DNA sequence: ACAAAAGTGTTGAGAGTACACCCATGC
DNA sequence: GCATGGGTGTACTCTCAACACTTTTGT
């Protein structure tokens, strides 16, 4: 380390992102940059993720997280939203940057760095692309995933961890539901994602005391049993409530 | 959106990161990818960040977060560690991916996507590059930052938020201290970063009950007053303790 | 003996958790 | 009137937060 100091400062003219006047950056090797969007939804009382089937090598026939190249004139989030709209037709969606994966050999063809996003969509807003000649897209249960291309298994695992974690200290659960919902539906959404049962009274107390919901005044008619009050997410609510400190 | 369906599926052959056989990806416009490393340390009882002074246009003379291009054969984290070692000489360091910034116009020259990392280093391990002809590097108080190049002000703000947040629910505070330290020093580190005073008894109880520290048996001699017990971080400790849930 | 920093316990308030029954509606 | 899911309250425990004095050392 010490010995390498001088040559290092010479060879790393661009180490601080400075390059000489007249330098043509395009001549240098550059990685490709993609966005991959992990799209979660609750379908048939199960947490599902949308995957697409690859048509070309490598990993032809295997399933992958939908994604694509970042266009030269769009931001990363715009790219992610574009991919999401292409796959699901949904535009007004909760989306969040997850992590950037960039191991040199994660794509066997060339260097590809991918910025992973995760999105939560309500199943009732999904615009089905049935019959299109686009690549096959299918919802898979997170409990029963097919073999995945690239490092996508790792990305999904990371996304699930983050989703669960997020659900525990923020109020993103609504994003998986339609605009209006009952408390039982919301509780069920939490139970499905967290994979455990919750106490009804404690759940209701905690959600209601956080004041992120408001009553619509409507009641659910269709179902059996007593009709449930219908709530909606308060658009003026602060979604992320301060958690209690652990340290110190 | 609906009208565009067909042409969209045609024009986006690479939307799912599939490109045709024989496709030469290098011909397409690609962004450059850099890593920037926000390096925090406690110096003179203040939270400081290491910045470098740019020599070239754009933003010549302004200060910037140290960083550089990701080499084609190294992972993102390797690139970040390399940059960190180049700037500080430190190798065994806490480092964490922060966020990826990729607005199309964040660099006026060309499209540059940067993966930001943040690092916590103990000031006693920093290897000074004094006299080297590398670009000027200087520690700045987070309370008194100079004008910053690119979107680096935004990155620093984000990094500070994340550091504070992290400190509240994990045990990374040690990373800012030497291997061995007293509880008062640790408390002071927390106070500096969080920007508020903490109760000594509550702090000690909470830290000690988490069992992430062990006594070295040694006592601090130098100072005035009663000598303090010296602790070290338990290498077998779990740094991230489960926080109490907020929802539900 | 005094200055300076280290170390130590208790109490009250608020939040979390566990737990069982009545209510409104459709059939 | 009964089946079905909706809605409600209370007691115990635990953690947090506030607060002041004694101990050990060097000079």
DSSP strand content of chain A: 25-35%
- Coarse shape of chain A: elongated
Task: Name the quaternary structure.
Answer: homodimer
Q: Calculate the mean pLDDT score of chain A and round it.
A: 83
Can you give a write-up of this model?
Two copies of one chain form a homodimer. With about 250 residues, chain A is an alpha+beta fold. The first copy, chain A, has two domains: about 30-165, Nucleoside Triphosphate Pyrophosphohydrolase; about 170-235, Arc Repressor Mutant, subunit A, CATH 1.10.10.10. Chain A is about 25% helix and about 25% strand. Chain A contains five helices and ten strands, in the order αββββαβββαβααββ. Chain A has helices at about 5-10, 75-90, 150-170, 185-195, 200-210, and strands spanning about 30-45, 45-55, 65, 65-70, 95-100, 110-120, 135-140, 180, 215-220, 230-235. In chain A, strands 1, 2, 3, 4, 5, 6 and 7 form a seven-stranded mixed β-sheet that branches. In chain A, strand 1 (about 30-45) and strand 2 form a beta hairpin. The two termini of chain A are about 35 Å apart. At the A-B interface, helix 1, strand 1, strand 4, helix 2 and strand 5 of A face helix 1, strand 1, strand 4, helix 2 and strand 5 of B. The first copy, chain A, binds a DNA duplex (27 and 27 nucleotides) through helix 5.
